[in-house]
Amino acid sequence: MGSGRTLKFALCEVLQFAGLSVPLFIVMQRFAIIVAKVKSSAQPPGDGSTAYWLIVASSIAYVTSTALLVWVPMKYMVFMKKKFLIRRKKWRPVALVYVILSTLPCFAFLIASSEVQINNNMKHDTFTELPVSLVLFSLICIDIVERIRHCRLTGQGECSPQCTLHNASHKSLTEFPGIPGNSGRPFSISGLSSRSASTTAYRISPYAYTGPLRLLCASDARADVFVDSFMFWMDTVEMVRVAGHPSVYFSGWVFPIYIFSYMSCLRLVVMPHSPLLSSLGVVLQDLPFLFVRIGLIAFFGFVTPLLYLMKNLLVCLAFVYFNFMTKLRVFNTERMFF
């Protein structure tokens, strides 16, 4: 039993450190290639090789120093259960450090790569696939590891409240007000992405079907974590994908795209069951993404699907309506039926 826990601990730590360092190495290496080409094509030509290896060495030094000075001490304090880190269990310090140390510099170098090419009349690399996908995939992996490391990975076992989903799509209809049998729990539109702390969400209506298709009724919260983590980031993934479009990448629009995409990444810091996730999802993602997508469509055409634009619009409207407008006297019509 002890060896299994040690193996799971080591696997989680290796995956998280790889998610911290690999995207940085890839993004900075691609940036170094761009700088080397700029140096080589300058008048008079500079030493592109020196610039390349200087940036690569800087990336290695940055990862090494942050790992030794920030990442390892922070991990030590988390596992030693320091009260100021885990007392309230409403935020994830590992995720916060990751977003600051890895995602922020990666997005900064993506913006810098665009500006370097624009200022030198180059169109060499738009970072369309590997680097950007690696950054976002590492975000997803960090999210999954943080949520599933508290679960048993073998056999049938209950997950702790920390191993829960961002959405409540599996919850019973009796949890929503206005439906007969409601237990009285309040509902918010963003609850579809935050109200899942209770592990009863996976036990409220166990399947009793015993027919030949009973295997199709299989469900496990640990497997659902993987699906939910990818779904949670799809809007951000689509926004960052738009930045890889050549007409967008070599324009000033790359700034708001990456800035607001980074802001949406800050939601990772909040625990999946936190009630703050509802409003943060609207303020940090849907509302800014709505205006950015309207601007992108106005200037570049349909470089982003209308589906995501409608998603941002409807989520914002629904959040305001169900959380605020329905509390006004004019919308409170319950007394008409009594």
Automatic annotation (TrEMBL):
The chain crosses the membrane at residues 7-31, 51-72, 93-114, 126-145, 248-270, 290-322. InterPro entries: Uncharacterised_FAM23-like_TM. Keywords: Membrane, Transmembrane, Transmembrane helix. This is Transmembrane protein 236. It comes from Myripristis murdjan (pinecone soldierfish).
